[in-house]
Amino acid sequence: MTASLDRIPCTVVTGFLGAGKTTLIRNVLENSKGKRLAIIVNEFGDVGIDGEILKGCGIESCPEENVVELANGCICCTVADDFVPALDQILSRMPKVDHILIETSGLALPKPLVQAFQWPAIKGRVTVDGVIAVVDGPALAEGRVASDMDALAAQRATDETLDHDDPVEEVFEDQVACADLVILSKSDLLDDAARARAGALVEAHLARAVKVVPAANGKVDASILLGLGLAVEDDIENRRTHHDGMLDHEHDDFDSFVVEMPAITDPDDLAARIARAAEEENVLRLKGFADVDGKPMRLLLQAVGPRVQHHYDRAWASGEARGTRLVVIGLKGLDRAAIETILAG
């Protein structure tokens, strides 16, 4: 290991769509114990929802200007164009940041990103403190890598061996293979038997001795996640993945688009429409904001499959353009018109 005192440690937080990465990072921000933090958020879609959630924390140790969003594509495909300039921006901040958190998109492969830390322009300034994989406990307990993927669940049910040709499975397996710590999210929704099934599925993909930590609502002691000091870039070649030796990879298996709508009157009604769209049109993930008539607060919505959560996260700022913007993510072939019709009511 070649960790250096003058290099800024970076923690890579990876995980599938809806696994709970943003919730975990927000909890770290709220319990950073004085560390000056910065975040790079790799958004999948045209609206920076995750970045907006983190910017809205109002936490002194991570001011809004320390949250940098990358929305031009998967971070592991755009390292040179997006990630390096984002690092430059953060490292120029004064006072100097103590730690950088990198939230990858649900589709990103950690290995190409970590390999970039070997580049001369990066290596002398930052180091990878550790790679954290966040996995969806309830989905794994049912034999799926993400929530509400009925087609994948059916495929797995008919074959006891993992189908490595399935791109969704490969993304999950590569993320776990590169992890130094695995967070089993939503553990409060699991009984002991379900937790054991989920843990067994994760451990089947671990080639190394990696701890699996259960977490509810993203609550994990920040000292467990930060300060690992592993200099992962020096070891990354030993972490075998499906995409080793490939010059590039594509994410043509997914569709993503933004739905903009007028103000709504009933949050529960919108949540019901979102759940219906997920069930009828195979929407894997939906997240966004809504303008509610007569309310000074912005409504935050997040859905994993038909499971929808919503709450008012903050007041609309003076001069801010109010609106309803929802990012829809699903497997290739989403019927955009049908989804928009359902959401519009």
- Rg over alpha carbons: 20 Å
Identify low-pLDDT runs: 45-49, 150-166, 247-252
Strand content: 15-25%
**First-to-last CA distance:** 57 Å
Percentage of residues assigned to helices:
25-40%
Return the CATH architecture of the largest domain. 3-Layer(aba) Sandwich
| CATH C-level label of the largest domain | Alpha Beta
The largest sheet is: 7 strands, parallel
Number of domains: 2
- The name of the CATH topology of the largest domain is Rossmann fold
- The counted number of beta strands is 12
Number of helices: 12
State the CATH superfamily name of the largest domain.
P-loop containing nucleotide triphosphate hydrolases
Mean of residue pLDDT?
79
Provide the structure class: alpha/beta
Widest sheet: strand order?
3-2-4-1-5-6-7
Q: What best-fitting shape do the alpha-carbon axes yield?
A: globular
Question: What is the element string, with H for helices and E for strands?
Answer: EHEHEHEHHEHHHEHEHEHEEEEH
